[in-house]
Amino acid sequence: MHLPHIPPYKTKVVEPVYFRTRAERTAKIEEVHYNLFNLHSDWVIVDMMTDSGTGAMSEQQWAEIMLGDESYAGSESYFKLIRSVQHIMGFEFVAPTHQGRAAENILFSAVVKEGDLIPGNAHFDTTKGHIEFRKATAIDCTILEAFDTTIIHPFKGNIDLDKLERVIKEHGREKIPFINITVTCNTVGGQPVSLKNIQETIALAKTYDIPVYMDIARYAENAYFIKTREAAYADWTIQEIVTAMFKDVAVVWMSAKKDGLVNIGGFIALNDAALYEKLSQFTIIYEGFITYGGMSGRAMGALSEGLKEAIELDYLHDRIEQVHYLGAQLKKYGIPIQEPIGGHALYIDARKMLPYVPLDQYPAQVLGVEAYIEGGVRGVEIGTLLADRDPITGLDRIPELELLRLAVPRRVYSLQHMDYVAVTLAKIMERRDNIRTGFNIKKQAAILRHFTVELSKI
Ligand code: F0G
């Protein structure tokens, strides 16, 4: 008999959960215009809106909070962060930012101009937003397998090298300031990119003299998938894989709210001194002095420790296994999910789960609202609302996938919570024949509309 797997941590501090009735939730969600972002968190029972900034910190991280050096310039907490990034990632210069999109703002202010093209695997929405805000274009070169939720492929985040080369040849190197690889690829389901694909993308980019940048919000989870799915690296340590992933990458930027295991923070890391100097100008304008860039000393200290914990193999094993446990429960109830299961979340195929909701009535949002009403479970729509409108035609962009994402915060919930979430979805599955209408948009913002959109029931 084997001893069962248990998490490599135990609980020291707890946070209350408030239970409301189904009727109370039904009234509340109408009151907030069917926008899950408008709910106060104490109205949510299991919050799977995001794995970003929602993780639980370790006692070592809390110790760093107490040790935080809040000096305006040259704080010791900053140097702890620099040493962690240098040691784990191999980059010399580090520009802290308050979160990932602030890193995008600074980096793209320095390198992206009107008319540019940024090819890569499906760009995250803030990345795309920051590109389009500068009147440049993000070109998705993810492999086609990523857009069929039923195809099993170990690295659905991979870049289609033929498509990438066609884009470069068609538009010319001058229009492409960098190629972007996002690890893991959030937009297509937290799907990893293989080390082989990273190396081949870099080799191709090199022949055209284009640098490769990486959005590394979930790079440790990506490294875990390389170890467990790419045979050549089964015996490598996570650190060895991380080193290989970043070897010829020019610039990385990170939303540290994910694999940094902190509640707020981010950074840009690179070896190019001239570019770092250019970035520093933007850091000072947008974030703060270069030795804190929008983070407090205590947050930088906690991040310096979180970066180390996030590449520990037993942590990563527990983390990914919990996500996969929920996936297995959902599958048991016949719920159609993106497969193979990714690193940080489950993605439910709303078109398949709610086949009677018309495509232009936001089926994934309908599923999100139903999950909230049924069990107080809060997910997030990754579908037509998030895809927003075409900047030229102003019409809704219909994405290839219409998904409800259930993201799993790090070190927060138990397997019992995962069972609860699975049964919530199973109950919706049972009554799906009666779910036949969706939403109209009452009000929407000019950009990144999903955060504030107001909907009415059809
Ligand atoms: N890049 C990726 C791949 C992300 O997933 C995110 C955020 C960002 C950049 C932006 O970072 O939020 O710190 O400003 N993703 C969160 C999510 C919001 O829920 O997936 P940020």
Count of alpha and pi helical runs: 16
Binned, the helix content reads 25-40%
CATH architecture of the largest domain: 3-Layer(aba) Sandwich
In round numbers, the mean pLDDT is 96
CATH superfamily of the largest domain: Type I PLP-dependent aspartate aminotransferase-like (Major domain)
Structural class, judged by helices and strands?
alpha/beta
Radius of gyration: 21 Å
Tally of domains: 2
Largest sheet, in brief, is: 5 strands, mixed
> Shape from CA axes?
globular
Uncertain runs = none
The CATH class of the largest domain, by name, is Alpha Beta
CATH topology of the largest domain: Aspartate Aminotransferase, domain 2
Reading the helices and strands in chain order gives HEHHEHEHEHEHEHHEEHHHEHHEEHEHEE
The main sheet orders its strands as 2-8-7-6-5
Attached small molecules: ligand F0G
Write the layout of secondary structure elements.
Blueprint: H1 22-31, E1 46-47, H2 59-67, H3 76-89, E2 93-97, H4 100-111, E3 117-120, H5 125-133, E4 137-140, H6 161-171, E5 179-182, H7 195-207, E6 212-215, H8 219-229, H9 238-246, E7 251-255, E8 266-270, H10 273-286, H11 297-309, H12 313-332, E9 345-349, H13 350-353, H14 363-375, E10 377-378, E11 380-382, H15 384-387, E12 403-407, H16 415-430, E13 439-443, E14 454-457
Parallel strand pairs: 1-10, 3-4, 5-6, 6-7
Antiparallel strand pairs: 2-8, 7-8, 9-12, 11-12, 13-14
Helix pairs in contact: 1-14, 2-11, 3-11, 4-5, 4-10, 8-9, 12-16, 14-16
Bound molecules: ligand F0G.
The site of ligand F0G has 15 residues, from helix 4 and helix 5.
